[in-house]
Every structure is written in C-alpha cells, then in structure tokens.
Fold these 3 entries.
Entry 1:
Amino acid sequence: MDDPKPQGTQSKGRPTPKRSEAQGRRRSPVTAPANRKEAYRLARERDRKQRDQAREGMLRGDEKYLPARDRGPVRRFARDFVDSRRLPGQYFLPAVLLIMLASMVPFPLEIRRWVLTAYTMSLPLVMVLVLVSSFYVAGRVKREAAEKFPGENLKGVGFYAAMRSSQIRRLRFPKPTVLPGGKPVPARK
C-alpha cells in the first residue's frame, strides 16, 4: 500500500543554502579596536554611559534602576507617605547641629551657662520626640500598607519608613515625588 503524502508539506521554491552562505549572512561585521589602549578606552566609555543611564534612572525613581531595598509598590507607598508629611525626624540633625554650634560660640559666661543648660535639656527631649515619631510612622505605614496591598511582603517596610522620616528631605534617596500635603512635585524644565 502506498502511504499518502502528508497534506502540509510543500516545497519552499528555492534550494537550501550552503552552510557557509547561511553563516556568512548571519554574522555582522565586527569592528574590533586597533589595539589594547583603544579597547580599554571604548570599554570605559561604554561603562560610563551605563553608569550615567543608571544614575539618571535612579534619580527619576525608575524601578529598574533602584536598589532592591527601594523597589516595589509597598516601598513606593512608604516613601510617598513619609514625603507627604512634615515629621520631627527630618529636623533632628539640623537642630542638633545648631545646638552644637551654639554651644561652641564663646559667649560670656552667664549666657554660655544658659546655652549649655538648653543643650543638655533639649537634646534628650528632641531624641524622644524623634523616637516616638518614628514608631508612630512605622506602625501607621505598616497598617495602611497591609490594607492597601494585601498579600504583598511587608517585611521591613515600617523600619524603611521610619529611617526615611529621620532623613533631611533634600538628602532623601530616591528623591521625593510628592510635596508635603500630598501634591506631586512639579516637573523641572
């Protein structure tokens, strides 16, 4: 009995190319550097462009370029939560610096005594205020993130928000995308 020819087979209408022809078409011409010095220069240039691109992406807040600790919708929520509020922690370092500088100024003895008393009384008070604020922010962010992102990993998000709340706003990374009050940061031209 003759086997019937399968229905789907048809000739392609041209001969099969030789291996050397097929490989020749696949390859693109390579322009190798002339010497080792040129190769290093090209590699440095390529690496510099990649670093610049990654830096720009990080400053924009592009998820692809952010470090692992800053990625994800939960971390973005924590950043926006902290950045949309004025919290005591962001004023801690400037206040301590101001108090320290005031304690070093050679005031007359009577004024110096008042400055040092204010320094020793205010520093612990400011530290307690910052700690209470950090615990409040951590708890609130964890609670709201659990409501908004059920099923997401919330490990460390409270600590992340508390640490961000203790940074000076201008020095935060990634840059804040919302102003205090919740309005988006206007785009720069």
Note: The helical segments are 19-26, 36-60, 73-83, 92-104, 109-148, 157-165.
Entry 2:
Amino acid sequence: MLPQFQKALAQAAGRDKHWVSIKNDKKIIVLDLLGKLTSYVTDKSKGDRTIILSSGFDANKERSKTGSEPFIEKLEVKLGAAGEATTIARNVKGTRAYAHQYTTEPPGPKTEWVAVGSSVNRYTFRGLTSEKRYWFRIVAIGSRNRKAYSPIVSKVIQ
C-alpha cells in the first residue's frame, strides 16, 4: 500500500482535486494498516522494549490517558439537492484524517460501511438513492492511529 500512497502523494503535489482525493483515500488506508501493525507489535512484544525496538518502531513511555484521545460529540447530516447528504463534525483536536461513512442497512457488528477518506471534517455524498434511509458516521483518525467514532445519524434522502 505504501508505494500506492507515495504515487498518489506525488500526483497530488499539483493540487489537482482528483489526485488530492485519491491521496486522502490512500492515507486513510495507510494509517489504518499502520495502526493494525502497531497493535500487533504491541501485543506480541508484551511490553519488552528490545522486541519493540527490533520491529522498527520506537518504544515510547506509556501513553497519557488524559485528553489525547480524539472525540466527536455530535455529527450533523445536512440534506442537499436530490441524492446528496453532507456529513459534518466539529474539528477534532489532533485529528490527521477523517473517514466519512454511510450504510444502507441498520448498523450492527457486521455492517459494511462505504467510506471516503478526507483531511477535512465535511464531506458531501452524491448519487445516493432518493427516498431511501441511510445511516451516517464519521471516524476521526489521530496520532498513533487513535480513532473516534461519531454518533450514528439516520436520514431519508430527498
């Protein structure tokens, strides 16, 4: 995935909106994979500093539990023209990326979410089916792959 992200990053250097969007989508995936790798190394090392360092990761002191986790208190979903819905969350301190998501089924543990990566807290979904119910959420991704999920909001699309 890293070569794909690096290619998208190079293409987005010209600020072309299409390539910037592709780069943002790849960034979400890379951050998610890095978080999974971090969790794997942490789990397997069982706190052994030598094992952590041999993995290529830096060994940090234990994380502070105060104020470092991203948090989304409220999600706003605004309906626009036919087939459009905009998800908005207030900027979350320490957030590096957002994943704007929707699903067409009531959310549960096996729900498949459609996600769009972004570096901003607002995204407009287009081409949604009118008169159909959708469920929306935003995932804020911070440093060390810390994630915050917004409340889920349901809307019937115009």
Note: The longest strand covers residues 133-142.
Entry 3:
Amino acid sequence: MTRTIGIEAEAPLENLVEQIYRNRFGKQVLGRRTAVWRVLCESWFNRYIPAGGSVLEVAAGYCEFINNVAAGERVAVDLNPETRNHAAPNVTVHEIAAERLGEVVPASHFDAAFMSNFLEHCRTREQVLAVFDAVRGALKPGGRVMILGPNFRACAADYYDYFDHHLALTEKAVAEALELSGFEVEVELARTLPFSFRGKLPTAPWLVRLYLKLPWAWRFFGAQFFLVARRPA
C-alpha cells in the first residue's frame, strides 16, 4: 500500500528548508532571535569588519546577522526562498546554494563573510570544502570569514535532535578544513554561545551584553565554536 505523506518521497531535504524552519521557529522565537543578534553584532561581530566594509552572509536564514551588522554593503545568499522576505531593504539577497555563490557575487570583493549554524547541514565534508573555496574566492585578499556553529564535543546529546543535521563538527575539524582551503586561522574558540535559542542563552539585551563580557561563563554554558580565518594577502 502506498502511503501519502504530503510531499514527494524523493524530494531532496534542501527543498524542504522553508517548511523545516517555519515549523522550527515560530514568531515568538524569531522575535527573541532578532533581539539577540542585534546585540551580538554590536558587541561582538562588528569588530571584525572594517568601517564601511562589504559583508557577505552565507546561509543567511532569517537575516538576523546581515540586517544588524554594520557595513557599507550587505549581501546574503541562501537556498530558502523566505530569506528575501526577512531581509532589510538595503540587503541584496541571492537564492542559491552556498558552494555556488561565485556565480552571483563578484570575486575578491568582500571585506568579511559570515556563516552561523550552517556547516552541520552540509551533506559531506567535500561540500564544506566547496563552500570554503567559494567564500575564499569572494573575499578580498586579507578578508576574513567568521564561523559560528554547534560544537559536537559540547552538545553531542542534543546535536541530532534536528532532523537536518548531517555532519558532526568541532572547532578543530573546521579549523583544519579552513587551512586546507587556503585560509589562515586567527581565532579559534571551542565554546561561546549556548547550543540553541531554546536553551539557556539570555535574550534581554543587557543580559546578552553581560554574557559576552564574561568569557569564563562560556565554559559552562557555551556549546558553539567560533572561528575567524583570513584569506592571505
């Protein structure tokens, strides 16, 4: 007997990204995320971007980073067609796979690139390398990529509670992949933010700012790695 499940059985998981994230993040969660990302950009990520610089976000999702980061030019790429509906008016959005971003953005153009909670969704390690190669090509010589993501070593019990997680990664594995892709790793932190917005991360702006000023607390609550790597000049 054939059982109907409402989608084509052979549809790639990537085609379901809009449905997955609509189910995962309700309006209340999205509101909390936006408030947190505003503080994260102001108090943390902006320091890695030159004043008036150009920034590329890979797998931008609901655009919480790219909408709030200080930059003269802001570009986002994502497979999710919903991404452009969440982008600020001065953010350019391209609906394309991360490893193909070179088809839609100029080479050696951006001062900084950013990706958050994305690499674990890649199907293979070869895909991760392809993404890094594409990002490296889009950055100016001396440009930097910032990467935030769940550290499998710190959150193994919860890591695969998300149906679209494929790869188990740590900060050391990602650092090695960056070096294989021609980057020079400048910052490598094993624990920073908690694993999920559903967890212990405070969302009141003043509490987020306080948390960022207390790196010793990251060892207890942090489960996401953070790396910064530079394209050699």
Note: Confidence is low (pLDDT under 50) at residues 1-11.
